[in-house]
Design goal:
Keywords: Signal. InterPro entries: UPF0319. It comes from Photobacterium swingsii. It contains six helices and nine strands; from the N terminus they run H-E-E-E-E-E-E-E-H-E-E-H-H-H-H. By secondary structure, the chain is α+β, with helices and mostly antiparallel strands. The chain has one domain. Strands 2, 4, 5, 6 and 9 form a five-stranded antiparallel sheet that branches. It has a four-stranded mixed sheet with strand order 3-1-7-8, with no helix packed on it. It is globular and about 50 Å long.
Length: 216
């Protein structure tokens, strides 16, 4: 009986321990995790669990132009992706903390040069490095996993930021929306396309879209 009980409970305990040992990374509502070195992300997320050790992740500031509006009629403002490098241990929680932003002017200014800190569950600062990532093409068709892979490969060189030449082989390029076959897009790319089209639409088209989305 004792052996049977151990056989039943040991796998569960090992699974629970493995889950507990993950490094959990969280970002606030106005940020997105676009890609990580350890786990391939299909869609931008606010939280991800990763194995311990050195971490390389891509994040982006992404906020309604008016951060206190529920209608979001003014669209969104996004920053360039940022490569964040840090080290985390088993069971550690890593939280991205950004300053409070209250006005459309602050949103636009912050998106040009986001700053933030990383802290653990106790509020202690976690050392990290941040690099702004430049790439050719549009956010709506960008493969952020490929961009991260290229960026990590370039960090050993004197220039840590991707050059136009380095990006040329990634397949990331500007695409005319009228020529896009949406069936070829990943969920992340489809979401980015929809958001980009909405962000660049005029007020009438945004209202028409909202009426369509709500079935009005």
């Amino acid at each position: 009986m004792k052996k049977t009980l151990m056989a039943l409970t040991l796998p569960a305990l090992l699974m629970a321990q493995a889950a507990w040992a993950d490094v959990v990374i969280k970002v606030p509502n106005n940020f997105e995790i676009l890609a990580t070195e350890q786990v391939r992300i299909k869609k931008a997320t606010k939280q991800v669990a990763l194995p311990e050790g050195d971490q390389h992740i891509l994040v982006r500031f992404d906020s309604p132009t008016n951060p206190h509006s529920t209608a979001q009629s003014l669209g969104f403002v996004s920053s360039k992706p940022m490569l964040v490098t840090f080290t985390a241990n088993d069971g550690e929680e890593v939280i991205l903390v950004a300053p409070r932003i209250d006005t459309p002017q602050e949103v636009k200014r912050y998106a040009k040069a986001p700053t933030f800190t990383l802290v653990d569950a106790e509020g202690q600062t976690i050392a990290h490095q941040t690099t702004r990532v430049e790439y050719e093409g549009s956010p709506m068709t960008a493969d952020y996993n490929a961009i991260l892979a290229k960026q990590i490969g370039s960090t050993a060189s004197p220039a840590p930021v991707l050059s136009s030449t380095a990006v040329a082989g990634t397949g990331v390029a500007a695409v005319n929306a009228a020529k896009i076959d949406v069936s070829d897009l990943t969920p992340q790319q489809a979401d980015a396309l929809l958001r980009d089209l909405y962000k660049n639409a005029d007020e009438k088209r945004r209202k028409d879209f909202m009426r369509w989305a709500l079935g009005l």
